[in-house]
Amino acid sequence: MEEHLLESAIRLAAKVHRGQKDRAHKPYILHVMRVMMRGQDLEEQLLGALHDVLERSELTVKDLEEKGIPPRVLKALDHISRRRDEDYIGYIERVALDGLAVRVKLHDLSDKMDIRLMNELGPADLKRYNRQLAAYHKLRKVAEESRSGASRPTGKNRSTA
């Protein structure tokens, strides 16, 4: 059953991302698959496969629930999906509220920041890279605190590195 669910998520992602290209002009689904492959368990792999589906399609959380995606993955998917009216810092703050979303966003950022995949870096790329790098370090700290059992503040009062 678990393999079937992951296969379904991969097929759905492939359908949603068909024809989409990344910044290096490669098929976007390759990024999605790399994020999925970094997952350490089925939840991380499912979320990795689906992490950009809501942003890049008209699908909703309800649609994915009807396809059998587990509630825990759907909750994290809601946290990891950026909303149209949301600034990046607010988005990262929201990702930080869900441990599964944090772990998969770290996989996502690690892949996006792999400059070996780029042909060259322009000023806009460097600006984006620095923004992603700050988000990566912030989320990595959240993940480390979560693993160590340390308490962390919630909401907008946290540092916005």
Description:
By secondary structure, the protein is mainly alpha-helical. It has a single domain, classed as Hypothetical protein af1432 (Orthogonal Bundle). 61% of the residues lie in helices and 0% in strands. The chain is built from 8 helices and no strands. The longest helix is centred in the C-terminal third of the chain and has 26 residues, at 123-148. Mean pLDDT is 92; it is low at 152-161.
In a few lines, what is going on in this structure?
By secondary structure, the chain is mostly helical. The protein has helices at residues 2-16, 28-37, 42-50, 61-66, 71-80, 88-95, 99-112, 123-148.
Count of discrete alpha- or pi-helical segments spanning 4 or more residues: 8
Task: Report the sheet with the most strands, covering strand number, pairing sense and barrel closure.
Answer: none
* Poorly predicted sequence stretches spanning 5 or more consecutive residues: 152-161
Beta-strand content bin? under 5%
**Architecture in CATH?**
Orthogonal Bundle
CATH superfamily: Hypothetical protein af1432
What is the average of the pLDDT values?
92
Count of DSSP strands = 0
Number of domains: 1
From the spread of the alpha carbons, the general shape counts as: globular
CATH topology, which one?
Answer: Hypothetical protein af1432
Q: How far from one another are the termini?
A: 41 Å
Give the H and E element order: HHHHHHHH
Structural class: mainly alpha
What Rg do the Cα atoms give?
Answer: 16 Å
CATH class: Mainly Alpha
Helical content, roughly?
55-70%
